[in-house]
Amino acid sequence: MSPVFEEIRAGHLGVRLAETQAEIEAGLRLRYEVFVREMGATADEEARATGLERDAFDAVADHLLVLDHDRGEGAAGVVGTYRLIRRPAAEKMGRFYSADEYDISPLLAFPGEILELGRSCVAAAYRTRGTLQLLWQGIAAYVFHYRIALMFGCASLPGLDLEANAAQLSYLYHHHLAPPELRPRAIPSRYVAMERLPRGAYDPKRALHELPPLIKGYLRLGGFVGDGAVLDASFNTTDVCVVVKTDQVTEKYYRHYERKVGGAG
C-alpha cells in the first residue's frame, strides 16, 4: 500500500505519516515529554508507567511525524508530531475530540471532508520556524490528498491564568472571530469569555506577537477562532477553537502538491 504522500525532506529533517506502531509510540512518548514533563499536564497511572501520552482517539487517527534522520531512522528520529482525525475516523469514536470542549455542529454541517488537528508538539531543540514550516507542508500534502475542505482543532495558550492571557484572548476575539456559519462555541459548562479587555486597552501588535507560534500559523492561513475559551486543567492550558478553510492554505504549497499528483482524482 503506497503512502498518502512521500516524505518531504528539508536537509536532515523530513515529515511524513507514521508507518509503524513503534513510530506512533515514539510520537506518544514525545507528547509525554512535552505535555507532562515540560508543560505540567496531569498524567494518569498508565501514562506514568508507560511514558506515553495517549487517549482513545490515537487508535483511529493518522499521526504526522517530523523526523531527524541524523538521530536515526524510524522511531529513533521522531522529533515532532501532530494528530490528524478525519470525519470517518471520528465516526468510529462517535465524535471528534474537540466536541468535549466545543459545540462544533456548524463544522459538522460543512459539506465535504473536514479534518481535526490536535496534539501538536515538537522537541525543544527543534522549535524553529523551519520545523513548523515542515509540519505545515506535511499538513498541506495531507489536505490535498484527501481533498480536505475545512480544518479545525483546539489550540492552546499556556497556563490557566486568564489575566495573563487577557490581551491575547481579547485580540483573537476582536480580530479573528469566525463568521457565524463557521463559529464553534464553547459548551456552556466550560465557556469562558474571550473578550477580557476592551478595544484600545491593549496593544494588538504585541498581543499577536505573544501568541504561541502554532496559533500564529493558523492565523497566517486565514484562520478564525470560535466563541469562548476553555480552561483545560488536565493540560494546564487555556484552549481556543481554531477554524481554517483550506482554500486559504498557502498558494505555493497547493501548487506544489497539484504538480505532484498531476491532477489525478
Describe this protein's structure:
With 265 residues, this protein is an alpha+beta fold. The chain has one domain: 3-Layer(aba) Sandwich (Aminopeptidase), CATH 3.40.630.30. Helix content is 34%, strand content 24%. It is built from nine helices and eleven strands. The strands form two sheets. Strands 1, 2, 3, 4, 6, 7, 9, 10 and 11 form a nine-stranded mixed sheet that branches. A hairpin with a 4-residue loop joins strand 10 and strand 11 (237-245). The longest helix is centred in the N-terminal third of the chain and has 18 residues, at 21-38.
Number of domains: 1
Fill in the CATH topology.
Aminopeptidase
- The CATH architecture classification is 3-Layer(aba) Sandwich
Which CATH top level class fits? Answer: Alpha Beta
Let me know the CATH homologous superfamily: Gcn5-related N-acetyltransferase (GNAT)
Largest sheet: 9 strands, mixed
Which structural class is indicated by helix and strand composition? alpha+beta
Coarse morphology: globular
What percent of residues adopt helix (DSSP H or I)? 25-40%
* SS element count, helices: 9
Secondary-structure element order, as H and E?
EEHHEEHEHEHEHEHHEEEH
Give the total of beta strands: 11
Please indicate the percent range of residues in DSSP E strands (runs of 2 or more).
15-25%
Write down the overall mean pLDDT.
92
